[in-house]
Amino acid sequence: MAIRSASNDDLIAIEDCAREAYTVYVPRIGKVPAPMVADFESQIERGQIHISTDMRGALTGYIVFYPRDGHMHLENVAVDPTHHGKGIGRGSQDGFDRVLYRKAV
Question: What is the pTM of this model?
């Protein structure tokens, strides 16, 4: 698994991942969850999204974080359901920790 900043080329894959990851919650909460309708294009432009990819470079998940009120806010972690149970979410959070460390040093 590799983790990198998202680019505009990743937009459709991120939107697809959000839809696949969160559709299951629509019946449970009675509405579309916020991550399914997020403004990913804006978040990419602001450098707020990092993605995880498999060996072929295909998106397996993403994480959204940004500074807010003097802290880093972790907004969302989503994993493509076909990759559940493979440590993608945990790996994304570990990558988030590394990015925060680099920003702090």
Answer: 0.82
